[in-house]
Design brief:
The structure is a single chain. The protein has five helices and two strands. By secondary structure, it is an all-alpha fold. It has a domain of 80 residues. It has a two-stranded antiparallel sheet. Helix 2 crosses helix 3. The chain is rod-shaped, with a radius of gyration of 50 Å.
Length: 190
């Protein structure tokens, strides 16, 4: 009997401490330090959570786990708490990872308008650059044509001058020959 009492005295505290250990690990950080909510509650995060919840609610077959996490984030944001701990931290980190990974693309109209305006400006600047490039090409082509035309005209003028000089020379030679013939004929007849 004494032996059983001694064994129970030794084993009972071990069993009790094991039960406490299991319950402490199952609480998932509820004993950890509390965090301040403002680390997670940013305007972008609030907008993302609200728009993603409405997106998932409108789908036929939404991911129920994601929807549950996002709804919990909504409740935490609207609760008015300043400090969060345990599962709340874990769920907020999960929601933040959804947002950072781009799992659900939800953009508000203002973002889409800004993006559209940026794209319009980009297209306009590209068109202006293309027009400018086209004008520069046309000017370069026109300059090239003018240069070629000028060179051609100069070449033609040079050939014309050479031809005129040649004809003039031939005429002069002919005139000289005629003068010589005339002199010879005058000498013969005289």
């Amino acid at each position: 009997m004494k032996l059983i009492k001694n064994i129970v005295k030794l084993i009972l505290p071990l069993i009790a401490s094991g039960g406490l250990t299991i319950s402490a690990t199952a609480s998932e950080g509820s004993l950890g330090k509390p965090m301040q909510l403002f680390r997670f509650k940013t305007p972008e995060m609030v907008t993302y959570v609200n728009s993603t919840v409405s997106l998932l609610n409108s789908q036929k077959n939404p991911n129920k786990r994601h929807l549950k996490n996002l709804k919990t984030c909504q409740k935490i944001f609207s609760s008015g708490k300043k400090l969060i701990r345990g599962m709340e931290i874990k769920i907020l980190k999960t929601c933040k990872s959804y947002m950072n990974s781009g799992l659900y693309q939800t953009s508000n109209i203002e973002d889409l308008k800004n993006e559209l305006e940026t794209l319009k400006q980009l297209i306009k600047s590209n068109n202006e650059n293309q027009n400018l490039n086209q004008i520069q090409k046309e000017e370069a082509f026109k300059d090239l044509q003018e240069k070629e035309l000028k060179e051609f005209q100069e070449k033609q003028m040079k050939e014309l001058k050479e031809l005129q000089e040649k004809q003039l020379k031939e005429r002069q030679e002919k005139q000289i020959e005629e003068k010589i013939i005339k002199k010879d004929s005058n000498l013969l007849f005289n």
